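anyone else get weird line breaks when pasting these?? whatever heres mine. first is seq + tokens for prot A
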Amino acid sequence: MNNDKLVIAGKSYSSRLLVGTGKYKDFTETQAAIEASGAKIITIAIRRSNIGQNPNEPSLLEILPPSKYTLLPNTAGCYSADDAVRTLRLARELLDGHSLVKLEVLGDPQSLYPNVVETLAAAKTLVAEGFQVMVYTSDDPIIAKQLEDIGCVAIMPLASLIGSGMGILNPWNLQLIMERVQVPVIVDAGVGTASDAAIAMELGCHGVLMNTAIAAAQNPALMAQAMKKAVEAGREAYLAGRMPKKLYSASPSSPTQGMIAQIKP
């Protein structure tokens, strides 16, 4: 298991759990939760977080140094391809040419469902400009394949709506996506608790990204620790290969032969 790394754009990571930095009450809580998660890739909403664009405010880079974590700037809050591209160009400048990014283009502020038309357009522009694009999308396997063909380095389908905590609502579509694309598939959005993360990994997903499930827990650091264990356990179960499901089993777990015979009166 020590060699079972998550590989994205040619770089390997020891953790398959990716976490966000939003919705925590302060930087102290943020830092404690992220450290407990064991995550190596940390996603940051450029339009909502300060990583240097506001010099008079505390910067997330003070508690999340690029020397320790791979920072993944994202386009949360963007509703058009143009806004998303502009935001990630800014992130690349702030992070000294950093090219690994998370693209998300939302369809509306109520559901936060992805706008796949704008997502495809933004992905084409960003890939052409040399970005390594990890992309949030719907659980549509056709769109997932199109995004891979454009050149995205990871496909990130939702499990359910962002922040809903509803878990994996359509495991069959996730499996279709994994059958059709060769790049890593990382469940993004909708995870509510540790069992949701374990199920995603048992299905064969390469990783799980979450924010609200940890930040909105009563004890974020403890939930982060639980998520770390769930992702690891789910991955190990997938690699182990579960037993087939059967309505009835003709092979009992306890042997029926070689038993001590009952003593007859």
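and prot B, same format (seq, then tokens)
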Amino acid sequence: MAFLEVKNVSFQYTPSAPLVLDDLSFSLEKGTVLGVLGKSGAGKSTLALALAGLIPKAIPGVFRGSIVLGDKDLKDLGPGETAGIIGLVLQNPFNQITGIASDVYSEIAFGPQNLGWPEAKIRSKTDEIIEKLGISHLADRNPLGLSGGEQQRVAIASIMVMEPELLILDEPTSQLDPAGSETIFSLIAQLKAQGTSIILIEHKVEQIAEIADHVIVLAKGKKVLSGDPVSVLGEPIITEYGVKRLFYSELTELLKAKGHLKPEETITDFASCIRVLKEVAQSA
């Protein structure tokens, strides 16, 4: 039985509005990462809100289908239950900052406090996540006075500190520089290794291909492509849905056309890319 099962989910914000999610079905195994891709307006952020249990409870609209987590339908879970097992990092970090805490440390500790954790555990986990995300220097700063990238890290930390069983990340690196993005992807890999189930909405296809076990591509709320990350992200048709194609796939085709690769050979990672390019250079 899948850890998360999305069955024939459709959603529209008003009865007369277009469908934002359209008969969407997929599943997620426990401890795996599902990558969700698609251009702006494809329904990715609405899907994230539905998976977090905010649609249709906190955000009204016409919802059909079911989202089952473990053996429970999300519609049957109360806010307290949902917060204890599902974590959502929003695309815009400003929308996630509480505005209550006067410093970053208190902001990150706010969630665990609401869950009733013992004080010692709150301090231990808050210290741990601050260190992992490299934001110790921000601990005494006011969250509202931070830059967008700094707020992004704080928002991510405030969710990850609660150790949710299902972590939903809506473009978590959108406001981060390459070094900050690498930190987040490294942390995602650690969480996956620890058994956290993750829904990752991202545009960085190379990173998705490395970390995801499965990907789906959305277009106008529909699932149009689904499968192994390298295979799906290497398909030429993927660009029609506003998703960048994997560089390695394009390079493989180019080198085959030039006779530098055999028909059965493929380049799927950085190491094989360097090896093949060195061979091409040596034979030139």
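btw re prot B: The two ends are 54 Å apart (CA to CA). The longest strand covers residues 4-12.
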